[in-house]
Amino acid sequence: MPGVNPPSTSSAAATAPPSPVDLSAPGLWRRMACFVYEGVLLFGVVMIAGYLYSTLTQQRHALEGQVGLRSFLFLVLGIYFVWFWSHGGQTVAMKAWHIRLVDAQGRPVTQARALARYVLSWLWFLPSLVAAWLADLHGSGAIFGLMTIGVIAYAWLARLHPQRQFWHDAVCGTRLITWRPALPPKRRRGAPPADPEPGRDTTGGS
Q: What is the C-alpha R_g of the chain?
C-alpha cells in the first residue's frame, strides 16, 4: 500500500526467535583432551594453593597436616569449578576446546547445581582411590596407574548413556555441549558503510 514502508531487515532479525541450542554431547576424545588440559592447568592452581596453606599454617614438613591440606585443596578446587561453571559454563580449558556446561534444558547452570556436579565429579577418581586403599598400595606409580585405568573406564561408561553424557552429569541434570562463540557478520565487498546516527553532522561544518 502507498505510504506503508516494509519492515526492515534489522527489525525483523531483532524480533526473530533465537536459534535453538545444539544439546548434543561433544566427541568423547575431545572431552578427554579437555580433561587432560584441565589437569595441566590445575597443577599450577594446586601448587599455589599448597604453598599458601603451608605459609598460613607454618607447616615445616611435607608429611604434616595432610588432612588439612587435602581439605583446603578440595575447597579451593570447588571454588574454582563452581565459579567458572556458574559464570558462563566454561573453565579456561573448556573455552580452548569449545565445550560448555549447561543444564538439561540448555540454560546456564546455577551455583547449587555446579556445586553438586563438583562433588559428584569425584566419581572420576573415587573408585580407584578406594581400590588402592583396599589393596594397600603406597607407591605413587601404582596409584597413578590405577587412577588412569579408572578414568578411562569411567569415560567409557558415557557410551552407555543414551545421549553420551557422563553419568555425574545425568545425575545432576547437567550436560556438556559444543559451544563456539558467534562471529560478527562479514560485510560484503562493495557494501555501503552503516548509516550515521540520525541528526549527527558528518560534514564537519559548524
A: 25
**CA quadruple 127, 131, 137, 142: dihedral positive or negative?**
negative
Residue 147 exposed, middle or buried by CB count within 10 Å (0-12, 13-18, 19+): middle
91 contact partners, CB below 8 Å, separation of at least 6: 38, 41, 80, 81, 84, 85
Angle ∠(60,61,64) on CA atoms, nearest 5: 110
Which residues, including other chains, have CB under 8 Å from residue 3's CB and lie 6 or more apart?
none
Residues 6+ apart with CB under 8 A from 147: 125, 128, 129, 132
* Whole-number Å distance between alpha carbons of 98 and 180: 6
pLDDT tens track for 106-163:
999 999 999 999 999 998 888 888 888 888 877 778 888 888 999 999 999 999 998 8
**pLDDT, tens digit (0-9, with 9 covering 90-100), for 65-85:** 678 888 999 999 999 999 999
Give dist(CA 120, CA 171) in Å, integer.
9
Pick from 60-64, 73-77, 94-98: least confident: 60-64
Indicate the residue type of 77.
L
